[in-house]
Amino acid sequence: MEKWLIVFKAVILGFIIIWLFDSQLRSESLLFFLLYISCNLTIYLFQKRPVIHIMSMMTIMLIIIGHLFIEQIFILLLPLNLCEWIIKWTERYFPLLLSAIAPLIFIERELQLLYGFISVISMVQIALIDQYLKKEAAWVEKEDEMRETNDRLTKSLLENAEFNKQLEYTIKLEERNRISQEIHDQIGHNMAGALIQMEAAKRLVDKDQTKAKELLQNAIHISSDGIDSIRFTLKNLKPKTEQIGVQRLKLMIDDFVVKQGVTTHFLYKGSIDLISPIQWKIIIENVKESLTNALKYSGATKIHVDIAVLNKLIKVVVKDNGSGSKKFTKGLGISGMEERAATVNGKVIIDGQDGFSVTLLLPII
User: Fold this and answer.
1) How large is the average pLDDT for residues 166-177?
2) Which residue, 131, 122, 42, 34, is CA-closest to 81?
3) Which residues belong to any copy of the Signal transduction histidine kinase subgroup 3 dimerisation and phosphoacceptor domain (predicted)?
4) Is the Cβ–Cβ distance between 63 and 36 less than 8 Å?
5) How far apart are CA 74 and CA 78, in angstroms?
6) Residue 1: its pLDDT value, please?
7) CATH 3.30.565.10 for the 241-363 domain, yes or no
8) What whole-number distance in Å separates Cα of residue 126 and Cα of residue 93?
9) Are 289 and 296 in contact, with CB atoms under 8 Å apart?
10) Burial of residue 106, with CB atoms counted within 10 A of its CB: 0-12 exposed, 13-18 middle, 19 or more buried
11) How far apart are CA 181 and CA 33, in angstroms?
12) CA dist., res. 307 & res. 279, Å (int)
C-alpha cells in the first residue's frame, strides 16, 4: 500500500511544480524538492522504525521551513506526511484530522480551501490504508495459526499411524506367541506321548505282543487326538467366510465414500453364513459396478446397499436417490453383472422408476 502514498505525494508535488511553473523556479525551490524526495525515499527504503521516525520529523520540519522561507504553497505537502507519521503513534483517526487541519489557521487565505481539501483526502487515505494493513495482518496471523494447526494435526496423524503400525505388529506377535504356545502345550505333548508309546511297543513286540499292541493302540489314540487338536487350532485361526465377505464389502464401500464423497449406507440381515465364497465374489463385484454407475449416470447423493438372506434366495439391492430413467441401454457394466450372476443361476433386475436400483438374486447353494 505504500505505492499509493508515493503516488499521492507525487501528485501533490506535481501540482506544486505546475503552480510554480509560471514563475521562475528558484534554486532554493529545486533544493527543497531534492531534499523532500530524498527524505521520503529514505523512509520507504529503510524500514527500521527509528529511521522512519527521524526522517518523518525531518520531512515535516523541511516542509514548514520551505513554507516560511521559500514558497508558501509547500505547506500543501504537510497533511499527508503529518498523517503518515501520527498514525504510527495512535490508532484513533480524530487526532489525524485534527493534526492535519490545525495549521489551517496559520495559512494564507488563498491556500486554506485547497489545504483543507488535501487534509481531508490525506486523512481518509491514511485511514483506509491503516484498515487494510490491519486486516492484512489479521489474515496473516490467522493463516499462521491455521498452518500451525495443520502441522500439529499432521504430526498427530503421523504419530497415530506409527502407533497403529506398532499396535498391529504387537498384536501379530501376541497371536504368533499364542499359536506357538497352543501347539507346544497340546499338539507337541500328544506327539511326544505317541512317540514314547511306539518306542515302548517296539521294544516289547518280540517279548509281549499283547502289551505291544496295547501300546500301539494308545499311540494311535494319542495321534488321533493330536490331529483333532491341529484341526481345532486351524479352525479357530481361519476367519469365517461371512466375516471375510462382509469386511471386504465394507472396505470397498468405505473406499468409495472417501474417494467420491457420496453418502452410502450398508445393511445386512439374515443368515449371512449361508453365502458361499463364490457368491460373495459376485456380490462384491456387482455392488462395485452398481456404485460406479450410480455415480456416473444417476447424479446420486445417497446410496443404500442392502443384503438380505431369505429362505431360498440371497437378495442384494443397490438403490440411489438419483434422477433415474425409464429407458436405459445395457452397456458392458450391466451385461457383466448379468453374466456373473448367471454363473450361479442368479438374476439381475434393474429399475429406473425412482432413482436407479439394481437387484441381484442368487439361489442359496
Assistant:
1) 70
2) 122
3) 175-241
4) yes
5) 8
6) 54
7) yes
8) 9
9) no
10) exposed
11) 96
12) 12
**Nine cell digits for residue 99:** 493534526
Kindly report the number of other CB atoms within 10 A of residue 28's CB atom. 12
Residue that is written with C-alpha cell 442368479 in the block? 346
Could you tell me the sign of the dihedral formed by the alpha carbons of 54, 55, 58, 63, in that order? negative
Model pTM?
Answer: 0.43
In single-letter form, the type of residue at position 210 comes to T
Place of cell 493330536: 226
Which tens digit of pLDDT belongs to each residue from 204-245? Answer: 777 777 777 777 777 777 777 777 777 666 666 555 555 678
The four Cα atoms 192, 197, 198, 202 give a dihedral, to 10 degrees, of: 140
Q: Which residues are registered as beta bridge partners of 314?
A: 309, 362
Cβ-contact 79, 122 below 8 angstroms? yes
Distance CA 341, CA 285 (A): 10
**Residue 243 confidence (pLDDT):** 67
DSSP lists the bridge partners of residue 37 as: none
Q: CB burial class (10 A; 0-12, 13-18, 19+) of residue 77?
A: buried
Dihedral through CA 155, CA 157, CA 163, CA 166, nearest 10? -100
Q: List phi, psi (to 5°) of 266.
A: -125, 125
- Report the candidate in 119, 135, 127, 136 with the shortest Cα–Cα distance to residue 93: 127
490525506: which residue's cell? 122
At residue 85, what is the residue type?
Answer: W
The C-alpha atoms of residue 345 and residue 17 are separated, in whole angstroms, by 98
Which has the closest alpha carbon to 225: 197, 193, 198?
193
The cell for 180 is 506357538
